[in-house]
Amino acid sequence: MRERDLREGGMTRDDELRARIRKVLSGDQDAYAEIVSSCQDAVRAALGGYCRSTGELEDACHKAFVQAYFKLSDYDPRRGAFLPWLLAVARNAMLEEFRREKAETRRLQRYVERASVRTPVLGDVELATQALERCLTEIDGADAEIIRARYREDRTCEEIAGTLGKTAVATRKLMQRLRERLRACVEKRLAAVQGS
Amino acid sequence: MSSPELEELLALYFEGALDDAGAARLEALLAADPRARGRFEGLAELEGLLRVRATNEETRDRLVGQVTESVRQEERRRALTHRVMDTLRKSPSTAPASAWYGWAAAAAAAIVLIVLLARQEPVKPNHTAVAAPQPVPTPPPTPPPLPIPQIPPPKTLPHESATPLQVPPAPPLPRPDPAPASSPPAPPPTVPPPPVPAKPPDTRAVAILIEKSEGASLDGSRDLIREGSELPPGRGLETAARGLAVVHFPDRTRLELGPETALRGISDREKKGKGKRLTVLRGTLSADVTRQPADEPLTIATPHGEVRVLGTSLRVSVDAAQTAVSVKEGRVKLIRAKDGRSADLSAGHYAILAPDLDPSSRSMNAEEVVLLAAQGRIVGEEWKAVSDRRASAGVALEAGATAFKPAEHVRARPSYVNFTFFASADREYRVWLRAASQATGDPWNRDLVTVDAWHAGANLKCPYFGTSDQTCVVFGGISSTSAYSWVSGFSAQGKDAGAPLTVRFAQTGLQTLRLYVAHPSIRVDAVWLSVFQVTRPPARQFPPPLEGK
Lengths: 196, 549
Fold this sequence. Notes:
Chain A is an all-alpha fold.
């Protein structure tokens, strides 16, 4: 079978990003808005596990994108795709922030550093998101409500506990069990669709 | 190894409630246990995904706006700093000789600088000034509005083997295995100087070659044919990768050869009862045929059958696997080589001649395309046609085992189902698949089929393939019911995926769509490309009826 030109029908995603970068470097600042729009979920996913709250995550994303703007001329398309470069800038911005804080809170920053160089445990963000959506359909209503309260409403375990009539400790344990269950489910789903 | 302490620390960490002492203790536990480290990293990634999922559009839009504003403010600040410093550098050369005056001027300039900087708009809450050591970008021009997302304009692209051709300029085709034409004519001598024949030989030119581009030659020889030259009777023509040739018969029947096209044995009406004849070995031929005598049709032979033409405008595309015929005006008769089965084709219809496909006429209605299972050409061992009373036409395509995982690319896969159909380039088609899962057990493992529409832009980028340039889409949601249902795109189990897969083809003409196995035991009844069906059809709905069936 003869090889097809897989650029048929339009540019690849990375081609689109590079075209926008060229526009930005030519002075089209609004082209950067398109880059922020298309890449922000990947940046949130990369940083979300190391932020203490939604507000902190949004701040981290904001800083990451502003830093990346002023470093755009450093990006070399010959060295790889744009998104990994952007995620590296985002993680470094987060590490800079850690270093500005008190010495004690610099702990666990090594895992942010490792995330830049290791293979992701869950793999590609888009595929993992699909797998997560499937796994979320398998949890029952009460557990789904806890997930919604924690992540959509940004409520603490104490607040959720009050709603459930449980203690904060019990709610925290329940939340952690849900995370473990979802993690195992997503890993299993991804292993079923990804080649070796 | 898990411990209550580790579990509690992880729970506190992901709640954002871990204090410094707890952070130190957690780090020590993770450092001592590689499995715990792996769990933590997986949980951190999951936490990121959950936060992404919880992000609404308002938050996304707000981030874009805040970043844009911060970037503008920082650029203005840098630009002003640059101008002020530039001014300060130049100012000492014009100052008076008094040292006291020089120092006072420098101090005044510094005060001016401080005042100007202090008057900059304060950074909004949640913004942080960035001190990245980069050169100041030049002020941008008035920016254009954000583009409206749309299917990108498709491009003309090369073909693979077994791919139907499209309107000129058509891309090149692979050469098929050498296959003799169904009735190859005997080539006459190129220079016929008979002694004194009782009946003079027919030295009339078959046709006059009126147009060609580079690379049109006689019977594939190295000698290129010139414009205006005559084609000897019974000879053929061949065009190169970017070639083109046009032939006129004396009665103004016109043949147009596309690139990489090979014709043989072009002959005019030789005697009563024997009309014009030619053989298409491969490539594309468009023909405008002047009305022929009823008993002397123009016959176009291909490896897969014959097309008999009395007076029409048609197009013939030949590759290794099939011959596709589409009729713009008039009527033609098709005869399949394998068994002599014939079909009549009228204007606005097309048909496929192939050993294993039904040659029935199909409408070139560009707004609704229904591809039933029986119309698919199976290649390889992973698919088979099965009887199924629940299927629209009683036949379904059943996926078997495959060595490939759904997220593996389809480029090199040896097995697929190929559909050829007519579609227009100026339409956006929603692609619906009617399918059912025959397996039981975990729905996640019996839910997917990969669909690949060639030479088409799409509104969806399949997440299964990450940042690669795969254009195929894994359709999911098939296991949501036990019966046949319609799916499009990568719908979550039991849920609507939002917009269906929408494609726009690069060129009007015959198109290719392929199915690949993602999960076994999936049965496919039909593929429906529709301009109008924008919402998921009810599960029990059959595809619309085909014209001429």
